[in-house]
Amino acid sequence: MRGMRLAGGVSRAMPEPIAPMPIRPLSALTALLHVYIALRLLPALATLTPAWPLALVLLAVSAFTIPLPFVSRRIASNASVGEALKWVGLISMGWFSSMFVLTLLRDAGLLLTWLASALGVAQVHWNTLRPWSALAVLAMATGTSLVGFINARRTASVKRVDVPIRGLPAALEGFTIAQLSDIHVGPTIRSAYIQRIVDAVNRLGADAIAITGDLVDGTVPELREHIAPLAGLRARHGTFVVTGNHEYYAGAHAWIDELRRLGLKVLLNEHVVLQTRNVRGAQTDEELFESALVLAGVTDFTAGHFDAAHASDPHLALFDAPPLVHTRVLLAHQPRSATVAAAAGYQLQLSGHTHGGQFFPWNLFVPMQQPFTAGLHRLHDMWIYVSRGTGYWGPPKRFGAPSEITLLTLVPARP
């Protein structure tokens, strides 16, 4: 079938990964932001408790360690030490993120309170409000970071979702797809973490497994051994993968080759036809087609910026698909693909990318870039399911957006 492997048959040179932000300007910026936090909180804390220097120590440690993930290779000759430095820096990054946002919110609240006081709307006890609000910032940032760390490091729970498909053939009723997304194998997600995910998915006995991008944060030589457990994924029709933006940062062509070596089926603007009924048991061609499902996959929404031959195209992914197979599912990393996918005639799109926001306040910004943040949504005649992700990116922290292994079941839509 020409629609299968249209984009995957030719090996092309991959552009160099995007260069990281220069570390010195980044370090200077974060240091200045730590100074801002210190100036806004420490004087108030000093009036409340003699233990206020502890907050100063935490801020100093945070400012010093945040750059470590970017320079660990230069300052640590031992691999284990380098890994430990990355862990410390990423944990600090998560804590600092919450400290900074909560400090901004505190300042905004104090300003509104001052305006209300100046207008005679409220009477304010500043000697109480300032120190206790500063302590609240410190306590909330530390508490959410601790809880977020536990949430991020646990094995993602299984979320079961029924997807009502209009006109679903009887042979496809109950067809299941286990979706993994945004695992981000890298500095703090290694082979043991992946093995736990593989074991959990295999217990589901899904008909197919879909990995909807952002699987890795590093090159093949760095992460080959940590991605290896994915070869153990088991499903009736196999495991299918599409690229996310992070694959292109890390060298997508090399990763495509490696994933195929592991036995995973990478779909690059192409499709496969999954036959759910024994061909010999079909009485007519119509029965044969009705018992089949088209599973298509597109490259990441931004892939064309890295390699023009990988420009994402939901229409191309259906090229030469059997017209009598009406049930069509698309794997697309970013929800932004949904508008074109709906026009192309898919009944369901599975996406990720957003992490559900991962932790406050980033969940507030996701809708500025993506049409959907998490969960099952309807767009015209197509459903789109957006996973909150199975791993995490950057800081080992999830708060208010738990990770998930999603088991989607196709069911007939009610009249």
Radius of gyration: 24 Å
The gross shape turns out to be globular
Order the strands across the largest sheet as they lie in space: 1-12-2-3-4-5
Structural class: alpha/beta
Q: Which CATH class of the largest domain applies here?
A: Alpha Beta
Tally of structural domains: 2
The major beta sheet can be summarized as: 6 strands, mixed
Give a quick precis of the structure:
This protein is α/β, with parallel strands linked by helices.
Please describe what this structure looks like.
The chain has 415 residues and is α/β, with parallel strands linked by helices. The protein folds into 2 domains: 23-153, no CATH class; 157-412, Metallo-dependent phosphatases (Purple Acid Phosphatase, chain A, domain 2, 4-Layer Sandwich). It has 12 helices and 12 strands. It has helices at 23-46, 53-65, 68-75, 79-118, 126-153, 191-202, 220-227, 245-250, 252-261, 285-290, 338-344, 362-365; strands spanning 157-165, 176-180, 208-212, 239-242, 265-266, 270-275, 292-297, 328-331, 348-351, 375-379, 382-386, 404-412. The strands form 2 sheets. Strands 1-12-2-3-4-5 form a 6-stranded mixed β-sheet, covered by helices on one side. α2 (53-65) packs across α4. The model is unreliable at 1-19 (pLDDT under 50).
Secondary structure topology:
Elements: H1 23-46, H2 53-65, H3 68-75, H4 79-118, H5 126-153, E1 157-165, E2 176-180, H6 191-202, E3 208-212, H7 220-227, E4 239-242, H8 245-250, H9 252-261, E5 265-266, E6 270-275, H10 285-290, E7 292-297, E8 328-331, H11 338-344, E9 348-351, H12 362-365, E10 375-379, E11 382-386, E12 404-412
Parallel strand pairs: 1-12, 2-3, 3-4, 4-5, 7-8, 8-9, 9-11
Antiparallel strand pairs: 2-12, 6-7, 10-11
